[in-house]
Design brief:
The protein is mainly alpha-helical. The chain has one domain.
């Protein structure tokens, strides 16, 4: 039986508990309009890709050649940048909302 993308993401998060905990601490795990778990700033496909790449890149090999490791590291960095940008946008938005409440209060 084929697994859905959502099931794959949940499975990867269960396998990578340290990564899941980091994502939770950063408030980077979100739910999309359908209720599917995603990483902030990433599509479902990118979320799965990031969850697969992260442990391989952090292990500095993961059975990859130098060229594969370089390409994986570059892609991992691109995805991480998207996550960081989304998290920064969320912080700015929440601070803007907070300031608006304080000004009205």
């Amino acid at each position: 039986m084929a697994h859905t993308l959502e099931q794959k993401i949940i499975g990867l998060l269960e396998q990578e508990t340290a990564l899941r905990q980091w994502l939770e601490q950063m408030r980077a795990l979100i739910k999309d309009a359908r209720g599917a778990t995603l990483i902030a700033g990433l599509t479902a496909e990118e979320t799965e890709e990031f969850l697969r790449l992260d442990p391989r890149v952090r292990s500095h090999r993961g059975g990859m050649t130098d060229a594969e490791l370089e390409a994986a590291s570059e892609r991992h960095s691109e995805l991480k940048h998207k996550i960081d940008a989304a998290l920064q946008d969320n912080v700015i938005e929440s601070l803007s909302d907070w300031g608006g409440v304080a000004a009205r209060g």
